[in-house]
Specification:
- With 427 residues, this protein is α/β, with parallel strands linked by helices.
- It has 3 domains: 121 residues, 3-Layer(aba) Sandwich (Rossmann fold); 242 residues, tm_1862 like domain (pyruvate-formate lyase- activating enzyme), CATH 3.80.30.20; 41 residues.
- Helix content is 34%, strand content 21%.
- The protein is built from 13 helices and 19 strands.
- The strands form 5 sheets. A 6-stranded parallel β-sheet has the order 2-1-3-4-5-6, with helices on both faces.
- α5 links the parallel β5 and β6.
- α7 runs parallel beside α8, α9 packs parallel to α11 and α12 runs parallel beside α13.
- The termini are far apart.
Length: 427
């Protein structure tokens, strides 16, 4: 058993999204407050915590690989797995040699209590639950990890996209209150944070209370307006927002706001209306095109990122070409391309025909090449312009990097006085 008076060390590794990073950082601060010493994941530690993703099969494989690595390096250390993979497949994880504790969605923030009751050599414990019982909301943010802070304001999802396991892993949509988010932002501002990235599973659905009801008469636009008034935070970014929830009012407000950056990330998933229907998405491609057009009309300099999935069941060569042509025609800046992978208990498993893996991979390459060209074109459009850059404090090979307001990456020789500072820069 871990004696509370004994200084134990803990190391964390995060797989997946910005939301996971915010939660990992919060768990680390929580354990540090309980007397643990935080170490790097490559160091020797008494406890290793892996916060998992399960969007793709690769995330599952990486989790298993990390556990094997810990077993070789530190066989006497405790290994804890939490996150989406832990919620979805706790028994599968418990069978991985070396895993001591599996924490589901409702238990991850009780990690200190579980560690106090755990000893190496005990049989693997699973502390999971029915996802329907996951109703609480835990405020989380990353801190001290990088210049930008990821602030969780929403969790869970009420959508039923046929490819997605997130509702099964994180439960119903629920969010924080505007007043609490503002208080968190004010605290971060007092600690010197310059940029906050708002994160969640379905951000545009903000306003549902901890039990998934419309408990708060608040909207995402209300949150945006309230945060814009927080002094000390120079920049906000919206990590991702569904096109059907990205209203004209949100776009119009961001276009004239003090601190919300001209940068949107809007999931598309497919440029074919037929595939969007099979995916059970809540819009058609014309709505997406309208959103992009409005953004560019009001903010010609705005960066727009796009999520897209290739190789979804039923995606013929012709339907993939529809997606390619649609993306090619859109004035967007970059793509995040995902290769479809089968996930247990999803409706997509019933859709035929299945696209061969080799074809999926080829389509991924095609869209990644398109993304490269889009980003090059977007960057060249701004060549020579003066834009504000927030530089990060990390030095790598004598260089530092930062991002313009519209998300163009800048690299320059390291200067300590520029760390966490906004500098006017000629792109």
């Amino acid at each position: 058993m871990l004696a509370p008076a004994t200084k134990k060390s803990v190391a964390f590794h995060t797989l997946g999204c910005k939301l996971n990073f915010s939660e990992t950082s919060t768990l680390a601060r929580q354990l540090e407050a309980e007397g643990f010493e935080k170490k790097e994941f490559t160091d020797q530690a008494d406890v290793y915590v892996i916060n998992t993703c399960s969007v793709t099969d690769n995330a599952d494989k990486e989790c298993r690989m990390l556990v094997r690595r810990i077993q070789r390096r530190a066989p006497e250390s405790l290994v804890v797995i939490t996150g989406c993979y832990a919620q979805l497949k706790p028994k599968e994880i418990a069978e991985i040699p070396g895993v001591d504790l599996v924490l589901g969605a409702a238990e991850k923030f009780n990690i200190g209590q579980h560690l106090a009751e755990l000893s190496k050599g005990d049989s693997t414990r699973i502390s999971s639950c029915d996802i329907a019982d996951v109703t609480g909301f835990n405020s989380s943010w990353s801190q001290g990890d990088r210049t930008r802070t990821f602030l969780k304001v929403q969790d869970g999802c009420d959508y039923s996209c046929s490819f997605c396991t997130i509702p099964m892993a994180r439960g119903k949509s629920r969010s924080d209150e505007v007043a609490r988010v503002v208080a968190n932002a004010e605290q971060l501002a007092a600690e010197g944070v310059k940029e906050i990235v708002l994160t969640g599973v379905n951000l545009g659905d903000f306003g549902k209370g901890p039990h998934g009801d419309q408990d708060y008469p608040e909207t995402f636009l209300d949150l945006v307006k309230a945060l814009d008034a927080v002094q000390g935070i120079s920049r906000y970014r919206i990590s991702s927002i569904e096109p059907n929830l990205l209203t004209d009012e949100i776009i119009d407000y961001v276009a004239q706001s003090r601190a919300f950056m001209p940068h949107f990330h809007i999931p598309l998933q497919s440029g074919s209306d037929k595939i969007l229907g099979l995916m059970r998405r809540r819009y058609k491609r014309q709505l997406y095109a309208d959103r992009v057009a409005r953004i560019k009309q009001l903010m010609p300099h705005c960066a727009i990122g796009v999520d897209v999935i290739v190789g979804f069941p039923g995606e013929t060569d012709a339907l993939f070409q529809e997606t390619f042509d649609f993306l090619h025609s859109l004035d967007v800046s970059y793509l995040h391309v995902f290769t479809y992978s089968e996930r247990a208990n999803t409706k997509a498993l019933d859709i035929q025909p299945v696209v061969p893996v080799a074809v999926r991979n080829e389509r991924n390459k095609t869209l990644r090449n398109l993304s490269y060209m889009k980003l090059q074109y977007f960057t060249e459009q701004h060549r020579g312009q003066q834009r504000p850059v927030l530089f990060e404090g990390h030095e790598k090979g004598g260089m530092m990097e930062g991002y313009t307001d519209n998300y163009i990456r800048i690299q320059t020789p390291y200067r300590a006085e520029w760390a966490n500072q906004i500098v006017d820069w000629a792109v």
